[in-house]
Structures are given as structure tokens and as C-alpha cells.
Amino acid sequence: MNPLSISILSFIVFMASSVGGLWLAHRLPETEMTDRNRDLIKEARRMLVALASLTLGLIIASATTSFEQRSNEVDDSASKIIALDSTLAKYGPEALESRDLLREIVRRGIERIEVAAVEGFNTEKTRSGIGINRLQLKLLQLAPRDERQTWLRSNALGLANDLGAYRWLHYSGSDGRIQWPFLAILIFWLCGVFVSYGAVAPRNATAVGTMTVVALCMAMAIHLTLDLDTPNRGLIRMSASPLRLALDQVGPLEPVQAPSPR
């Protein structure tokens, strides 16, 4: 779902509902628009506002949590990438190929995030893995010569397994978690609210301006929710900066030599 398109469409639908309410109030006979009927409309509107507010609040909270989880995954990945490279450097020259592969994985991870920001997560470039399984197999092929290298190899495998659990390294199959029927029901409730606004509002510029501002605010709230639910693209997106910083610190540098025995 494109957040901008849906928010613009929502704004148009909300304004159409407000105009429909104004038209309905004008077409109904005076006997139908009594004070008791107006009170009933206001009570129904309060119920719809409560339902929509609660639902929208829950959706925003869920989208915010999902966004923070994915952003934290990238931050954690960067720290584990640096730790893994440092561990392999201490292992010795036998791990240089693994360090080269780790650097390539980081490069492809940055490319994947940048591609997803433009084209989404359902593209050919984001469907394939970026090599974390090959790195794990490469680490398993290391043959430790002493207890020190055995310990370093074990730590490297643990860090590689942690990296393999992160979702940004794999094809997610979806740009967001919010299902369109859920969003459609929410917009339908809000349309009922705007119809009630138009039904009881006076026909003047102030009333129309107020309904326009409220419709714009609700459309912006929907846009914010969908934008948070798609952390790979939009105005609020997952940053690859931690991975770039990690990439600057990893690579096939001179390995740390083991201390010579005294």
C-alpha cells in the first residue's frame, strides 16, 4: 500500500462525506432535523469517534513498535558485524576470506535497504539472500590449531548465527503488516463521522474550513501510520547509516597476531 496515495484518497473521501452530510441536511425536511435527531446524530458521532480513535491509536502504536524493532535490528547488526570482524581478525590469516565475505554481505545489505527504499521489498533484488549462509559455512570450514582459535571460531559462529536471525537479511515478502480490510473499516468509520459533521454544521465558510482542516489531519494520521508500517520506504524510513559505519571498520586488514609465548 502506498501511504501517500491512500492518505490523499482518504482526504478526498472525508471531504466528500462532509459535503454529502451538508447536502443531506439541506435535502431533508425540517421535521427530520429536530433537536432530538441532532442530539442522536451527535451521540452516534461520539461513539464512532471513540471507536476510530482507539483503533487508530492501536494501529499507530503497533506500527511504531514494528518500525523501532527493524531499526534496532540494523543497529544491533552493525555492532555484531564489527565484533565478528574483530573476532576473525584475532583468529589469524586463515579467516581473511571470511572477512572478505563479511564485507561483501554488509555491502549487499546496504544496497538492499537502498533498493527497498525506492522499489519496495517485493523486487528481484531483495528476494535473494545476501550470503549469510555462505559465511556460516565458511566459518565451519576453519580448522582451529589451538584452544585460542577454537574459542574465537565458536564466538564467530555465534555472532554469525545472531546476524542470520535478523529479518533485514532475508526476503520479508511484505511491505507492511496493516491489512487493507482493517484500514478500509477504519476509513468507513471516519466517513460516518464526517457525514455527521456535515449534517449538523451550518452552511458557511467557517464550518467548511473546519471540516477541511480536520479531514487533512486525519489523512495525515493515516499517512503517518502507513509510513511507519513500511520502514523501508517513505518519509520515515529505516536508515542504513549504522551499516555504513560498520563497513568503514571491517575488511581484510592485517590480522591481529597471537601473542608470542614467553
From TrEMBL:
Membrane-spanning ranges: 6-26, 47-67, 178-200, 207-226
Keywords: Membrane, Transmembrane, Transmembrane helix
Organism for this UniProt entry: Methylocystis echinoides
InterPro entries linked: DUF4239
Keyword Transmembrane helix: yes
Protein name from the UniProt record: DUF4239 domain-containing protein
Source domain of life: Bacteria
